[in-house]
Amino acid sequence: xxxxxxPILAGNWKMHHTHLDAIQVVQxxxxxxxxxxxxxxxxxxxxxFTALRxxxxxxxxxxxxxxxxxxDVHWEEEGAFTGEVSPVMLQKLNVSYVIVGHSERxxxxxETDEAVNKKVKAVLAHAxxxxxxxxxxxxxxxxxxxxxxxxxxxxEGLAGLKAEDVAGLVIAYEPIWAIxxxxxxxxxxxxxxxxxxxTVVRDEFGKATGDAVRIQYGGSVKPGNIAxxxxxxxxxxxxxxxxxxxPDDFARIVRYRA
Length: 258
Ligand code: PGA
Description:
The protein is an alpha/beta fold. The chain has a domain at 72-241: Alpha-Beta Barrel (TIM Barrel), CATH 3.20.20. It has helices at residues 19-31, 37-40, 49-61, 87-92, 103-109, 113-125, 138-142, 146-157, 163-168, 187-205, 207-212, 226-230, 247-254; strands at residues 8-12, 42-46, 67-70, 97-100, 129-134, 170-173, 214-218, 237-240. The protein has an eight-stranded parallel β-barrel with strand order 1-2-3-4-5-6-7-8, surrounded by five helices. Helix 12 links the parallel strand 7 and strand 8. The chain is globular. The mean pLDDT is 97. Bound molecules: 2-phosphoglycolic acid (PGA).
């Protein structure tokens, strides 16, 4: 990481934890995080939609400075979109961050760069921060196509945005072959691709924007590899799936400096 950018450690709980479990997990997580941690890093949990309200009231009642994130959003404010959740609804729950374009949404549910772009804009329009995910498949990597794929996803996902908005958002580089597989990109490889992403942002939105945007790594991040990843200049944080489900593990990841 670079000292000029504030680290962000986010847990993506995916389709795990009922709202009852979620309350316990967030409480246990908070017990293990000394207050000074929040001065140094942004700590975010992204529960399922059904657990957002419970986690929000727990954080509020216990005055826990963990930030709330959602895993997806629709771009419209309301309407006949059965099964979807609007940015207005998330904003009312004090959601700060919204994951957009996770590879599971792209690969399993057909989400396009165009849809990702609409969602990013909707999140920003409602004063929340997108965590926009990009990443290549194993085939794409082996064919030497990593840079082309992530560059396209970044350009199309951020198309039409103002530089000041881009400077404040978060991009998560998650190689698809590393997600949930136990295989992590080497920290050097992750650093290199994240550097390429930063170059795309500089080219499209100017140097200051590229210098400011925070870019996380995601894919089998664990207590045992977070410190090395965070030691890399370009890596500003992590989007953590499996290891964030367990409050002990996620607390160790958040306290990677300790
Ligand atoms: P993982 O998931 O940490 O379980 O690999 C990361 C993610 O999909 O965000």
